[in-house]
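User: Design a sequence. Structure:
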């Protein structure tokens, strides 16, 4: 374990991401599996971006947000999978403290941005289905850019605040993180000193970047479903639901698995289950985005 002296404490300079090291017989299989998933995710989302940019018929608010989401998904999965693939291939599970904090920042910023983007997309579908006569005037080009830019800026700012607080910590052992990426909660457990302030900050920011967008998304879909059920014809209901079903799938996987992971009891016996569920919102969601819109 690499360490440096810090007063009367010993500060850690690198962590060990345990990942799926407790499954030694499956390392090759997991490497091939995640490699295929990563390549499919990047290829699928890149194709969506290219189509949205090239096809004039797709220059609509819905596909503008979808293009933003696909760009985000490429960056999002790239903050985790390349590092995980290298670890599975070489067996080297170490990551420097600075590298870990960098991964934490980019992963957190992109995850927060996704929450805001999903909320913006649900609001877009709400206007299109529940207020179709006012849709063009309300969801104009300027407002679309404002929603997208606001999602990216707010996502980055929120995790910047949390990262600045974590940078004040000294990590004095142990240096093992029982996860496949650097998450804020495991890092807090490994830090020394008083953690009450950072825990409060983490809770407040989590509510702002996840709970509020989730409530907006949920409210939008309650109104959408209520409106669809009032459509008299079966064909009309199917057509209306088809415009938002793919987004609903992504929202369900993303928020559903996040809630399960963070609401599960803090027990070591559930560690493997939490890691598997974490794969749903870190790996599966970026993969499903292009396939659900095909």
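Assistant: Done.
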């Amino acid at each position: 374990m690499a360490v440096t002296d810090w007063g009367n404490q010993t500060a850690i300079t690198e962590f060990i991401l345990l990942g799926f090291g407790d499954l030694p017989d499956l390392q090759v299989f997991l490497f091939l599996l995640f490699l295929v998933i990563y390549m499919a995710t990047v290829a699928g989302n890149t194709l969506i971006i290219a189509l949205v940019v090239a096809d004039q018929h797709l220059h609509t608010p819905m596909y503008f947000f979808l293009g933003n989401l696909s760009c985000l998904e490429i960056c999002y999965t790239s903050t985790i999978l390349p590092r995980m693939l290298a670890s599975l291939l070489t067996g080297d599970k170490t990551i420097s403290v600075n590298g870990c904090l960098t991964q934490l920042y980019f992963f957190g910023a992109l995850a927060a941005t996704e929450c805001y983007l999903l909320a913006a997309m649900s609001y877009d579908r709400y206007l299109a289905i529940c207020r179709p006569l006012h849709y063009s005037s309300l969801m104009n080009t300027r407002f679309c850019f404002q929603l997208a830019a606001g999602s990216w800026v707010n996502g980055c700012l929120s995790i910047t605040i949390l990262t600045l607080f974590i940078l004040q910590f000294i990590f004095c052992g142990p240096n093992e993180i029982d996860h496949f990426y650097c998450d804020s909660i495991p890092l807090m457990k490994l830090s020394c000193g008083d953690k009450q302030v950072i825990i409060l900050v983490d809770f407040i920011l989590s509510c702002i970047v996840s709970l509020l967008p989730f409530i907006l998304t949920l409210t939008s879909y309650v109104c959408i479903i209520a409106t669809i059920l009032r459509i008299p014809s079966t064909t009309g209901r199917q057509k209306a639901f088809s415009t938002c079903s793919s987004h609903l799938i992504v929202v369900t996987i993303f928020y559903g698995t996040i809630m399960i992971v963070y609401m599960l009891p803090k027990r070591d016996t559930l560690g493997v289950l939490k890691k598997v569920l974490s794969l749903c919102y870190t790996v599966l969601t970026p993969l499903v985005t292009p396939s659900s819109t095909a």
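The first strand starts at residue 3 and ends at 6. The longest helix spans residues 97-130.
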